[in-house]
Amino acid sequence: MIFPYEKQAMNGEPMPDGLDWLDQRMYIALRSLYADAKAGRISREEGTKEKKQLVASYNQERENEAFNSKWVAHTVQLWKEIESANCQYRTDRTLEHADLLSDAIIGFVRPDVDLAWAKEAE
Length: 122
What we know:
With 122 residues, the chain is mainly α. It is built from five helices and no strands.
């Protein structure tokens, strides 16, 4: 994997502006890795091995970010549904509204809600 900023890191240039936290860490790690290789502190083989480890960690963190983002969106939606059902129940205390509130609280999965992404993580 080649990063858009990898050549800059290889040349020991300052970190470019606008990188997110994960890319900032990768930039610093790559810059250090290339500096160690140039200085002869590590072999090319060791550098290749370490870069593979860095890339694997980077990719795992990106996957974790995506998964966490989906869980946050799900949680926000869940609380919106609970709030809506609670307001309906407080306004009109019917059995139907109580059932809607109960379903919202326990996270009852309706057929119109796609949670396939959550099942992928199991």
